[in-house]
Amino acid sequence: MDEMVFYDTLRQALWIAVIISTPILVVALVAGLVVGLFQALTSIQEMTLTFVPKLVAILVVFWMSMGFMTEALTSFFHDRIIPLIGGL
Asked: Whole-prediction pTM value?
């Protein structure tokens, strides 16, 4: 395998990882900001208040974007990895 093919495949795989993780990370950021703002405004410093809403939001977004994630990974595998394995 040529070095350029290896690095191009690695670059594409990292880009797929960024695209797949973006919805979950954005929701975790927004949920954390909202909960942090709520805690700052009300002076409630409960540890479960920061953890549970973020976990629920992440699980909901993960469940909603699971089809997109699966499609992105399988298309990368079929379009890029299988031809490399087969030597095409």
From this structure: 0.79
Three-state DSSP class for residue 42: helix
Q: What is the domain range of residue 33?
A: 3-86
Question: How many domains does the chain fold into?
Answer: 1
Mean pLDDT by 10 residues, the chain (88 residues): 88 96 96 92 83 93 96 94 86
Q: Which residue has the tokens 């703002």?
A: 37
The Cα–Cα gap between 16 and 14 comes to 5
Do 7 and 29 contact (CB within 8 A), yes or no? Answer: no
Q: How far apart are CA 41 and CA 22, in angstroms?
A: 28
61, amino acid identity = V
Q: Taking the CA atoms of 28, 33, 35 and 36 in sequence, report the sign of the dihedral they define.
A: positive
